[in-house]
Amino acid sequence: MRLSRYTGWCLLLFMFANISQAVAQDTWSLQRCVDYALQHNIQVRQQDIQKRMAELTLKQSKLNRIPSVNASLGGAYNEGRNPSPETNTYTQQSFTSLNGSANVQGDIFNWFAKQHLVKANTFDLNANNFLMDKARNDLAFNVATAFLQILLNIEQVKVNEVQVKLTNSNLGNTKKLVIAGSVPESNQADLEAQLATDSVNLVTAQNNVITSILQMKAYMNLDFEIPFQPEVPENIFDMPIAHLSEMAPEMVYSAATTTYPLLKADDSKVQAAEYSYRSTRAGLYPSLGFTAGLGSSFANNFRSLDITKVQRSIDTVGYLASAPTQAVVKEGAHIPPSAYYMTPFGDQISNNFQQFIQLNLRIPIFNGWQVRANTRKAQLNVENAKLTKELDVQKLRQDIYTAHANAVAALQKYTASSKGVDAAQKAYDFATKRFNLGLMNTIDYITTQSKLFRAQIDKVSAQYDYIFKMKLLEFYRDQKISL
């Protein structure tokens, strides 16, 4: 069936809309990069597995407080000399049997060992939750840093492209002057050498863009074959950045101690270690428990007697001495084999049903010093957890002070590089006029041009470096990153 013209135009518009949407999706904003990375990053997914394992451990420790219930069912075929289920004596026979039982076992008092273990696992789960937050925050910061690095490399490519175009333009003018005989041919050779150097710098800058994109894809766990085009903000240098005076290191550190997930995880680990020590120490004391059970059995050679099939008989034993004519008789019974029948399954289960309950008092006397050694290890784990927290606090404070010092240096470097660009631009403008008038040789002109080029690169790098350092301080203070 042929499609109408209207239907064809609709399909064409639909396909164009899909293509436009696919092209638009090829542009990656920072938020899209962060969201994608949080879903696919391998390290975050591994930390999520650790969190789920802690949840299962906590669930198991809670259920461990409930008495355990177990049942067993077994069948056997017996051949040879075995105890008879009927007479409980050993006979030569063959039979099959079936046994079943169920029992309940639990603790009555164990010095709260299981309760302490539940609390320890609860705090361990809290620690894993905080570590999950830390992994996500660190990943978001790394992605933002990689995103800024890509933008910096793109800016450097633009500067190098301008440099190549400028050198090309100067080379073209010089060739005309050489043909006219106004300047020596060596000037052309010097500019050709400079063009080669500028081209190498451009290729290096382009390669830096590629490597930084690969780093971003590694954070995102994005296939290297998928195109990646960053969404460049209109003016990244106009993004809101806190003033350096608002980022005093002690102020940032004070805020970080209440928001930094690693310190919260350390607190939970210390509490988990303390409750784990209490749970282990309970093994040094007696504990009281109970066990209750029931069971029954069945055997196919267990027989019952049918009274109706017993044959009665009266035999004469003798006569009384006082009455010789009066006989003394004895009443007997003859039991034929057909009078026995296999006891039904239900009757055997009912007749053999048994129950029991017992109390168990466990008193540790000597067990190879295992409980005491484990208790001492648990106590040392508490001390180690506290030292780990102290070390992390020290490192956090050191990192914040270092980041602040680097931010101050980055700001000073950016201010100096800005002045350097202005000075280099003025020197280059004067040099261009003198070069065009033939008052400056090519080597001096190229040197002036290279200084401007280097000053521009240094300014862009210093500006991005300052943004990096300030965003790091903001990250320590707020545990979030934004561009």
Textual characterization of the structure:
The protein has 483 residues and is α+β, with helices and mostly antiparallel strands. 62% of the residues lie in helices and 18% in strands. It is built from ten helices and ten strands. It has helices spanning 5-25, 30-40, 42-63, 113-180, 185-220, 249-259, 261-281, 345-351, 370-436, 442-478, and strands at residues 27-28, 68-83, 90-109, 229-230, 287-299, 303-305, 311-319, 327-334, 340-342, 354-362. It is elongated, with a radius of gyration of 46 Å. 23% of the residues are buried. Mean pLDDT is 84; it is low at 1-25.
Write the layout of secondary structure elements.
Elements: H1 5-25, E1 27-28, H2 30-40, H3 42-63, E2 68-83, E3 90-109, H4 113-180, H5 185-220, E4 229-230, H6 249-259, H7 261-281, E5 287-299, E6 303-305, E7 311-319, E8 327-334, E9 340-342, H8 345-351, E10 354-362, H9 370-436, H10 442-478
Parallel strand pairs: 1-4
Antiparallel strand pairs: 2-3, 3-5, 5-10, 6-9, 7-8
Helix pairs in contact: 2-4, 3-4, 4-5, 4-7, 4-10, 6-9, 6-10, 7-9, 9-10
